[in-house]
Amino acid sequence: MNELWKYIGENEVNEENIGDLAEFKRSQVNYRLTYFDVRTNGVRYLKTLIYNLAGRLSEENWDRLRRISGRELGRPFAVTYDGESVDLDYLRAVRDLEFIERNVDLDGARVLEIGAGYGRTCHTLMSNKDISGYTVIDLPTTMALSRKYLREVLPDEQFKKVTFISVDEIETSLGDAVFDLCINIDSLAEMDVETVRYYLSLIAGRGRHFYTNNPVGKYMDKSLDDHARGEDAIARALDAGPLTDVIDVHDNRAVREQARGFVAAYRPHDSWHCVADEWAEPFTWYWQALFRAPAARR
Ligand SMILES: C[S@@+](CC[C@H](N)C(=O)[O-])C[C@H]1O[C@@H](n2cnc3c(N)ncnc32)[C@H](O)[C@@H]1O
Questions:
Q1: Which domains are present in the chain?
Q2: Pocket test for ligand 1, best of 187, 188, 198 (most atoms within 8 A of CB)
Q3: Distance (Å, rounded) from C-alpha 12 to C-alpha 280?
């Protein structure tokens, strides 16, 4: 036995810690035998996930990814795969674009995104397609970030095509603008139901297509994050969005069962048609759908 295993035997894998076997696979005993301590190895698991997803990325998606320069701004957790740096945000973004492109012709498109975060989707679309204008509606606080980020990563002539509209000036700033594609990723599910209704009717009134990528429901599994943001945060999250059923988000059948409700909840108007919907890999409880306005509106 070397020094390493002498230490492990004395401190980690031993009769006393093994106990009655009830929980040993979630304890230091097994973290020394088969996998890494889940509490302290978030980055390791994240990189493992990215690496595995990168290995399955299609040629078209590698091309989409390579066209996006400046992805390293902000120092994302990334892996290198076939010489290319890949992080989870853009890996998801190119796959979102792949799904959208299957159903919408984006050349010359006018795009509206509600809740853009730091702007990865805008960056991805502007770098890959001939987008004629990209409008972001967001809270002024978050928009301070997307404005700063997109100014850095987009060439001047592309950045000039991005319009930033704060939530308190939507109607006045939008004027009579209409959009070929409206996008909402991971944010309507965090808004009040009245706000969700407002945005869906805005989309129904001004859009031709709507892409949504959001959770199908809520969860209450403390083992996932030890409720690290506190119980108040849990209560706020459980209440938000159009889909508040608590489900086992790591049960594929439970997630799939919610998908019908997802498509119904995000349809901008009864007259809109759902063109495609499917699981939005990799997070288990995210679904994506693409809706199209009735022919008269197109
Ligand atoms: C979890 S982030 C997702 C960001 C981005 N879509 C992404 O996936 O990278 C949620 C976004 O919704 C925005 N948001 C929250 N409440 C909003 C509201 N009432 N109107 C518009 N955007 C809102 C946040 O500022 C943020 O940009």
A1: 1-35 (no CATH), 37-102 (no CATH), 103-297 (3.40.50.150)
A2: 187
A3: 39
